[in-house]
Fold:
Amino acid sequence: MKNLKPFFNPKSILIIGVSRKTYTFSYTLLKNLLEIFYEGNIYIINPNATDILGIKSYHNYDDLPEIPELAVIVLGSNIIENIEKLGKIGVKYISIQSEIQNRIDDRELFYQLNQLSKKYNITYLGPSMIGIMNFKDKFTNSVIPVRPHIMRANKKIDYGLGVIAQSGGLAGALGWWSPFQKIPISKVIHLGRSYDINETDILKYFCKDETIKVISLFLREITDDLIKTVEKITPKKPILIFYVGKEIKKEEELRKAGGIFILNYIELYEIAKLFLWCPEPKGSNLGIIGPSSGAIYVIAKEMRNQNLSIAKLNDDSKNKILNDVGGSTCKFGNPVDFWPPDKFIGTKICGIYNKASHILLRDESVNALILALEFFTEIEFDFKIFKKIKDLYPEKPIITILIHAESEGAKRVIKIATELKIPVFVNEIERSIRGYKLLYDYYSKIKKKK
Structure:
């Protein structure tokens, strides 16, 4: 496996072609490094400047005080000449992060780059790549903005998501955007034309990375090598895939190899929550607590679509639900429909969820718990009750769905649920149930392979 660590966490970085013009790609790259407090040494080459953003600008490669571990080229021309100079001073890792503006065609450029790579033992990324974001180790060479608060939010994670996108914009957007419920992201990369290093190389690197638990992959093209690599990695780490190409046969081969195909782009993150935070499901039987028969019917419909079942409780659990919980619970005890409560104001509804959750999760027939919550301001619901519940039943997934929730109540639930690593879906009943089925199917297939 290629050593890719210098691309994701270099001890020093040289940027060739930094402009003094604000909002240019090269200026933004340098600005990002300074704003996130990158701890390595930063060097820049610009023969027409003495310093940029307070960083000394060198005019010649020979003037550099050390050989940088990673060099980043953000020039649109003279790429070959600059790589030759970098090779001569001993640079071994180069990221080419600009569109090629000269008249060399792709084949000739590919040939020249590979010749230099062999001559100087250089490993390179690109060309035409947006860059890398390594949140865990506080490094980026993205040429579009990376917000410091996004970097800080992911710095303390134990593990998170690794993202590979065959789209510069969709990869780079993770530098300023975060999902409605924040999920931990470890590393993001856009490879550009991937002449030297490709998606399979990154997949292998992510597979070895202990800070990455789940991999999300946005694909426009599928290669045979990618299919083989996915087949090797999926028993170790789940790979979520959103494919936008036209090769149906390749797509089916990748699916058979173990790729987990989702329905749309946002599910690369929304479905990832389940794989990051939920334990391995032991079955397809669900317990449900909901605010109304309507919400429960919607959940049940999607469960039928996904071949999931409502858990059949034992007599003791059923009687406790029917006698102690209240509301319009069904005659079998599961699902639990607490409507109508005797009052809205106060902690009554929170108490219903607390008691019902314990009863359902204690029952051996229940493999996972679905919480459907409706909120308006007057309801006092302390979602912290699920800390104890999760501690008592760590082997059973808990999934939350917010339905028509007023914003303040929703914010409270999402904040605490994120701290407890409980996935929340906002008005997305079908996605939450389908996500559980993908989670269950993934672990079931892994067991069969073993």
Notes: Residues 255 and 261 are 7 Å apart (CA to CA). The mean pLDDT is 93.
